[in-house]
Write a structure and sequence with these properties.
Elements: H1 2-22, H2 29-39, E1 52-54, E2 64-67, H3 72-80, E3 85-88, H4 108-119, E4 123-126, H5 129-133, H6 138-147, E5 150-154, E6 157-165, H7 166-177, E7 183-185, E8 191-198, H8 205-212, E9 219-222, H9 227-239, E10 245-248, H10 251-267, E11 275-277
Parallel strand pairs: 2-3, 2-11, 3-4, 8-9, 9-10
Antiparallel strand pairs: 1-4, 5-6, 6-8, 7-10
Helix pairs in contact: 6-10, 8-9
Bound molecules: zinc ion.
Length: 288
């Protein structure tokens, strides 16, 4: 008796899974998220970040847009591209949790953004922790692939470029990311070839200095850092005559190749649905 019950239960589960796999588009938001969960390697892990932040899980997906920061411009471009599911790598309500702090409850910028999302019936899915936990880390892999430099290590991520001066490397990076006002610390004439990747806001000191102080790393390419950590460490190293340097390009542009990687990855298992990578504009400018 028990056995048959289990057998039929198993059959039902199996059939449901098979139906989900073979279902034709259009998909609901939930169905897309299920596909994402099934395709994260080695497996999906439930985290506080990777959830629907706002929207409706049962809406039919007209198209998917991936991005780094879902700002007003990205929201409008997603609407223009008929994408009602936006997969963003970073928070959309200016806070690293899903909660709105009390002092922001009546904030006019937040209110207008929420109103726009509701009016256009957009759903925002925050895809952060599992993008990094994926094997390979989608953000680092995306960045390494875009830079096209030789990968010599993925733990930590170290790339190799043809030996050049720090000035020359910094110019290459500035041109590549088209970012105004990147910051560089170190001797401009220092010869470098091994670049440690520390994109985004790597949370621990070890992820920054732990990479830079290695014998096989000359320079770190960083998103954002606390100035009294990386900045002072790198300056002290330079003042001591040690061959160390750091290039800071900002959180957005350092991790954005990962959002493009995500769109390409989605295309490998979501069929019949428009999937677009939306690139953020540069945020800051520098007086000439
Ligand atoms: Zn990230």
């Amino acid at each position: 008796m028990k056995f048959w019950f289990l057998y039929f239960s198993f059959l039902l589960v199996f059939q449901n899974l098979a139906n989900a796999q073979s279902k034709e588009p259009p998909f609901t938001v939930n169905e897309i998220i299920d596909k994402i969960k099934q395709n994260v390697k080695p497996q999906w892990v439930t985290t506080k970040t990777d959830t629907i932040v706002i929207g409706n899980a049962f809406d039919t997906v007209t198209g998917i847009a991936t991005c780094m920061f879902a700002d007003m411009n990205i929201l409008k471009r997603a609407v223009a591209a008929h994408c009602n599911l936006i997969i963003t790598h970073e928070p959309i309500f200016y806070n690293a949790t899903n909660t709105i702090p009390d002092f922001m409850e009546t904030d006019m910028v937040l209110k207008e953004k929420v109103a726009y999302i509701k009016e256009k019936k957009l759903t925002i899915f925050w895809f952060h922790d599992n993008a990094h936990r994926n094997d390979p880390d989608q953000i680092l892999q995306g960045l390494a692939e875009e830079l096209k430099w030789k990968i010599v290590s993925t733990s930590p991520w170290i790339l190799e470029v043809k030996k050049k001066t720090l000035t020359s490397l910094a110019n290459d990076v500035k041109r590549h990311f088209n970012v105004e006002g990147i910051r560089v610390i170190g001797n401009p004439n220092l010869e470098v070839s091994r670049v440690g990747l520390v994109p985004g806001l790597a949370p621990t000191l070890q992820m920054h200095i732990g990479v830079l102080h290695r014998d096989d790393v000359d320079v770190i390419l960083v998103g954002e850092a606390r100035e009294w950590e990386d900045y002072v460490y790198t300056k002290d190293a330079e003042l001591q005559g040690k061959k160390k340097a750091a290039i800071f390009i900002g959180h957005l542009k350092s991790e954005e190749p990962g959002a493009k990687y995500c769109a390409d990855w989605l295309k490998t298992f979501v069929n019949g649905t428009n999937i677009a990578f939306l690139k953020n504009d540069n945020y800051w400018w520098s007086p000439k």
